[in-house]
Write a structure and sequence with these properties.
S1_domain, 5-stranded mixed beta barrel, NA-bd_OB-fold, OB fold (Dihydrolipoamide Acetyltransferase, E2P), 1 helix, alpha+beta, Ribos_protein_bS1-like, mRNA binding, structural constituent of ribosome
Length: 159
């Protein structure tokens, strides 16, 4: 029996490790169910979900050239279409403004906010660097003054 990606099969758990479970498939081949593919929720100890000798339904996720078979118990469960993950409930924002549209990130529609409303052009890289340098020097001098005052002024050492 050839094992194809996407097919659901019955198998028997033959071994359990800290990273997953080995499942013997029809035809004598063995595949691995990674610990992340055992259940929909977080699995800390795989022994709470599976036992050696247990019959399980698995879905073939991938078959590598060297013969390794990747399996999933989680994806083998029958679910109605569109229920992969429940939609996040919208909640009012603390500022009272309407919530941002979902989808985030900067994509073809995400990052362009339209023309700028202020009349100043965006600062150049050199302007940003000079401002950073100025702020940095101010902070360093403030820190230096504070440490000198704690030592007794002008870098004098107590003896």
């Amino acid at each position: 029996m050839s094992i194809e990606v996407g097919s659901k099969l019955q198998g028997k758990v033959t071994g359990i490790t800290n990273f997953g479970a080995f499942v013997e498939l029809p035809g004598g081949s063995t595949g691995l169910v990674h610990i992340s593919e055992v259940a929909d929720n977080y699995v800390k100890d795989i022994n709470e979900f599976l036992k050696v000798g247990e019959e399980v339904t698995v879905k073939v996720v991938n078959v590598e050239k060297d013969g390794k078979i990747g399996l999933s118990i989680r994806k083998a469960k029958d679910r109605p279409e569109g229920s992969e993950r429940p939609a996040r409930p919208s909640r009012p924002s603390p500022s009272g403004r309407p919530p941002r549209p979902q989808g985030g990130g900067r994509g073809p529609q995400g990052g362009n906010r339209g023309p700028r409303t202020n009349s100043r052009p965006a600062p150049s890289f050199e302007d940003k660097m000079s401002r950073f340098l100025k702020d940095s020097e101010e902070r360093l001098s403030t820190i230096k003054r504070q440490t000198e005052s704690k030592r007794g002024g002008r870098g004098a050492r107590r003896g």
